[in-house]
# Entry
Amino acid sequence: MPKRDGKWFSRENYTSRGKFIQCDVNPEIFSSKQEDKCPKCKKLREEWFWCRFCEIKEFKEKKWTSGNKDIDELIKESQIKATKFWNFIEWIPSESIEKHDLIGKGGFASVYAATWINGPRIKPSITDDGTVNIVRAERWPVALKRLNKISKNFLKEVKTHIELKNDYIVRCFGITKDPESEDYMMVTDYVENGDLRKYLQNNFRNLTWKSKIEMLLEIAKGLKTIHDSGYLHRDLHAGNILPDRIVQIADLGLSGPADLIIPENQLCGVIPYMAPETLRKATYSKSTDVYSFSMLMWEMASNKRPFATRSHGTYLILNIAEGLRPTIPPNIPKVYKDLMVECWDQVPSKRPTVDKLIKRLETFLNNICWHSTPKIALQFDHAERCRLESLTNEIENDSTHLHPEAFYDSRNLSQYSLLDNDESKLIVNDVNDVDSKHYHSEDLSNIDGAIYLEVDNSTNTHSVELISMSRGLSETN
# Structure
């Protein structure tokens, strides 16, 4: 940890997440207009004795290259537009990175744990003559994300990280190059706890309802950052949620402007988290992200992955489009259940906006802490008592019942054509798929599932009434 520069800073605080040091500047010194001026250019420094004008000048004068013109331009643009001493990405030479173990591999990327020898910028340090030096946190743990195929999507994801800088979005420090494969890799913050699924497996027994609501609220705030910036995430699932001191949203590879049209043959994702309208027509909206959020709510309440005992193929796609949802866990607060059900409503317009979602979650949290509305507070009190009583039993999860064809990494779903216009059948292009037929809604009488939303295909409207139906075997997860 860097030494305290007591003359200039009255307090410093490391965030446990590895963001940067937050410093309270000594007000007696900072109030001096003379100290505010940069000794080099004589212009007023914008924050913490950091001169943006001199920094940009140095950026322009530095001679470096990544070996890729587009990457060079992206990094330089980020640096020229910097508004804070840490708020930009860097070209990080490979010799500054110690790559460690492979920690994750999905359909589109591989992720490695690593150490950044120089580390990120954490604060400006002021010498007696007023010269500013930027202090770095040496040997900083980072994650390296390498796309399986370098393409414009790599640059798009980095650019999205730049535009969505926020405490609730995983931080991207810059770009490096693997000296062995010569692949470019994103350098991001590393979270030791892993993703939400791993976190729940290790911590569910001790996770109170207060903690669950706090975590969901932070996820919702991250989603608000994305939506308020005119973006959609398009791939929100437990593998892209990183809990630590603050819960962060990661993997913006499929994110993009809300008006971006995704061709049917490029449909990607994790089927259980995908909204029915996405599975039917490759339609994305803010409401589809909210639908994905409902599955995170379900996972937080149950400690299971949605549809873990099902094959993630044709039948499940059609079932979800027909209204199938996971069985609601027992002993959860009614207001929590009601919000979750609203978020997975068959009709996108009936799902809450992320702003309303945040407001409801904040209401839950206020009642847990302060009992401001007794009716709501009692529901969470009861749920917490049930949780504590259940601690004497073995905590269930789905690890021993996971279907061999259940996939929780994003993958290309182009092998499945979407439902046709009457929304009652699915066409599969892959003749090797076990469900490769045309499936009609009238053929679903024996498909397992306990909870369905009533869907009226004849009028293309949907009833919002939640009903329980016995269709063969009940949904076990």
